[in-house]
Amino acid sequence: MEDWLELVKRTFEGRDLPLLILLGNKVDLNHMQAVKQDLHLKFATDNSMNQYYVSAKTGDQVNTVFLQTAANLAGVEITKP
Questions:
Q1: Rounded to the nearest 5 degrees, what angle is found at the Cα of 45, between the Cα atoms of 42 and 47?
Q2: Neighbours of 55 (CB within 10 A)
Q3: Using CA atoms, how far apart are residues 16 and 53, in angstroms rounded to an integer?
Q4: What percent of the chain has pLDDT over 90?
Q5: Apex 25 CA angle, 22 and 28, nearest 5
Q6: How far is CA 34 from CA 1, 10, 60, in A?
Q7: Dihedral pair phi/psi, residue 62, rounded to 5°
Q8: pTM score, two decimals?
Q9: By Cβ atoms counted within 10 A, which residue in 16, 29, 30, 61 is the most buried?
Q10: According to the model, what pLDDT value does residue 16 have?
């Protein structure tokens, strides 16, 4: 994750960073997660990123991520879950 973030920072050097989102997958398969949820959350928090965990298999939280990201980019606050 650190390498990815450094690449983004170098790419945008001298400019504002884009909206950064840390997206973890396999929420339905804890034993297969490359990055455990506590490290995922700490990295996202430490680097001012939105963070989500989803399941591509079940679709869990996928719509939420797209809706929240679109709202953030549009400057709209979502008030209902």
A1: 105
A2: 15
A3: 25
A4: 57
A5: 140
A6: 11, 25, 18
A7: -65, -50
A8: 0.76
A9: 61
A10: 92
Which tokens sit at 43? Answer: 């990295």
Question: pLDDT by residue (tens digit) across 23-77?
Answer: 987 766 666 666 777 888 899 999 999 999 888 889 998 999 999 999 999 999 9
Distance between CA atoms of residues 10 and 7, nearest Å: 5
76 token code pair:
């709209």
Q: Quick one: DSSP state of residue 31?
A: G
> Exposed/middle/buried for 20, CB within 10 Å: 0-12, 13-18, 19+?
middle
Other residues' Cβ atoms within 10 Å of the Cβ of residue 65: 16
Rg (CA), the chain: 14
16: its two tokens: 């504002």
The encoded tokens of residue 2 equal: 């650190």
Q: What DSSP state is assigned to residue 68?
A: H
